[in-house]
């Protein structure tokens, strides 16, 4: 035995954490444009904020690229969460089936024994 185990509670907590983070990232955006990553690009970091036109131009470029990065991260995060949920369901079913099997085995095995002495029927 390798010692490898699955902690279903930890796996479920990881799933919930990932979906919560994705939800919070989506809430940063404008309703209807959450999936596009557009909220990052709409940040106002013009010359009046940065103090220099060249800096503002560079920040605009970075934010435009970040929009696509966020969109891709949201898609990847959704894929990871979906796969994790599928895996969780498989392991949960295996655990439930194993518990049920052992329970049935125990019920069958324990029903064969009584507390009577085997000599009691010989008298």
Give a concise summary.
The chain has four helices and no strands.
Summary tags:
123 residues; rod-shaped; mainly alpha
Report on this model:
The chain is mostly helical. It has one domain. Helix content is 70%, strand content 0%. Helix 1 runs antiparallel to helix 4. The longest helix has 58 residues.
Helix content: 55-70%
Rg to the nearest angstrom?
Answer: 29 Å
Instruction: Spell out the helices and strands N to C.
Output: HHHH
Quickly count the helices. Answer: 4
Described by the principal axes of the CA atoms, the overall outline is rod-shaped
Strand content: under 5%
Describe how the helices and strands are arranged.
Layout: H1 8-27, H2 38-41, H3 47-50, H4 53-110
